Each structure stands twice: as C-alpha cells, then as structure tokens.
C-alpha cells in the first residue's frame, strides 16, 4: 500500500520510518507551510510573565518548537511547580527534550480530549497560557473561560497553503493509495490545490471525529477514522484497510 504523508516539513521522518517497518511505502507531500511569527512587545511581556501562569498548554509540535525557542531567550531555567499540558505524544517528546514533563490525555489527541483532563477541571481564577499557531480553534479557550480561568494566548507561528501546481498535486495523488491527514487546514489546502475527481477516489485517514466530518463535507464518502494523530494510531488505522 502506498501512503501519502502530509505532515509539515520536518515532522514526517519518524512516521515514515514506522510506515516502512510496518510494510508500507510512503511519500512526503506537506500540506501545511509553517512560518514563525515575529513577536511583539505584548508577546515578550507574556513570556517575561511566564511564572505568573498556573499552567501552560502547548497545542502542537510547531507550537512547542517555536514557543520554547522564544521562552529560552528569557528563561534559561523554567519556573518550578508549573503544569504543562499538551494533546499529543509528538509535542510531549519535544517538551521532554527541554526537561518539561507534560501531561497528555490518554483518550485521544483532539482538543475535546484535552479539555477532559482532570487538571483542567477546577481552574476557577487560575491563569493559563495557550501556546499555539495563529488563528486556531476557540473551543479550548472558551471552555476554560467558562470554568472561570483567565486565558492568554502566545501565537508563535502561522500556517499557509504550500505553493504546488495542480500537476504536482495530481502526480502525488496518482502515486498513492491512501492519504494521511491530521489537520483541518491540511484537508482544506488539498482541496484548494485540486478539485480533480481523482482526489475523492483516494482513501483518506483522519485523526479525529471533527476531521471526519470535515472530510465528508469536502467530498470524501468514507473517510477512515484513526484513534488519534500519533504514529501508532495512524498506522493502526491503515492496517484496517483491505
């Protein structure tokens, strides 16, 4: 089976190694262009006030990379006794390389799983920092505000659509049997790059129920739902395909 891996540049290697070990061929075709955001005075003050937050939530591997690069400029040693949470094992691994032991949900990798962590239940009057990309979902922030928390964002990167020609896109689609997707914007970017009927003839594996609904609305008839976005979960979903 030939698998198209669509993670951003630099985030595909381990997944492709696991795919090879599991007997799959893979090709990398990133569907998100990631660029850091230039921080302003408000962002710098947020980082300087890091020790005033009860906890920090890191939304993605890119948020971890760019966020920690920024934090390291002002905090050679991180504040102690501070909760760090994230929604995925890939992000957790990046944080661990900075000696941060982040808590992750065991139920899945979606925001809906994150908000059910017990550490986010009794948070009235607490201050929480969310490190993320520009323009992310509001579900997490809105939920925590409803529970009485004060929320601050630190947006450290932006996502865009890679510049491929339709010919390049169709070349990759012709090659693959299955497309792996773990981002709503990646799904939307792919349909922006081509509306050719070939696209919807391909099997797409998505990492959350939300993405499954989006895929159906875009034109896929039977997207396959993985238990989450980590390498093992995506490969487990692939192995259910006949």
What does this 3D model show about the protein?
- This protein is of the alpha/beta class and 242 residues long.
- It has 2 domains: 109 residues, Rossmann fold (3-Layer(aba) Sandwich), CATH 3.40.50; 125 residues, 3-Layer(aba) Sandwich (Rossmann fold).
- Helix content is 39%, strand content 20%.
- The chain has 11 helices and 10 strands.
- Helix 3 links the parallel strand 4 and strand 5.
- Helix 3 runs parallel beside helix 4 and helix 8 runs parallel beside helix 10.
- It is elongated and about 50 Å long.
Supply database-style keywords.
Rossmann fold; 10 strands; single chain; alpha/beta; five-stranded mixed beta sheet; five-stranded parallel beta sheet; 242 residues; 11 helices
């Amino acid at each position: 089976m030939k698998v198209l891996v669509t993670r951003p540049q630099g985030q595909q290697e381990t997944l492709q190694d696991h795919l090879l070990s599991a007997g799959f061929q893979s090709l990398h075709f990133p569907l998100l262009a990631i660029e850091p955001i230039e921080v302003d005075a408000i962002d710098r003050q947020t980082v300087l006030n890091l020790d005033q937050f009860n906890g920090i939530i890191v939304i993605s591997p890119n948020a971890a990379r760019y966020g920690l690069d920024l934090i390291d400029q002002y905090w050679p040693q991180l504040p102690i006794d501070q909760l760090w949470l994230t929604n995925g094992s890939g992000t957790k691994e990046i944080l661990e390389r900075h000696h941060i032991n982040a808590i992750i949900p065991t139920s899945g990798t979606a925001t809906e799983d994150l908000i059910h962590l017990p550490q986010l239940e009794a948070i009235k009057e607490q201050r929480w920092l969310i490190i993320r990309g520009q323009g992310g979902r509001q579900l997490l922030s809105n939920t925590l505000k409803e529970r009485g928390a004060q929320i601050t964002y630190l947006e450290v990167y932006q996502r865009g659509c890679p510049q491929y020609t339709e010919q390049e896109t169709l070349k990759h689609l012709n090659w693959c049997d299955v497309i792996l997707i773990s981002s709503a914007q990646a799904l939307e970017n792919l349909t922006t790059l081509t509306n050719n009927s070939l696209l919807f003839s391909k099997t797409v594996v998505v990492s959350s129920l939300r993405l499954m609904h989006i895929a159906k609305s875009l034109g896929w008839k039977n997207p396959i739902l993985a238990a989450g976005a980590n390498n093992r979960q995506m490969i487990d979903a692939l192995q259910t395909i006949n």
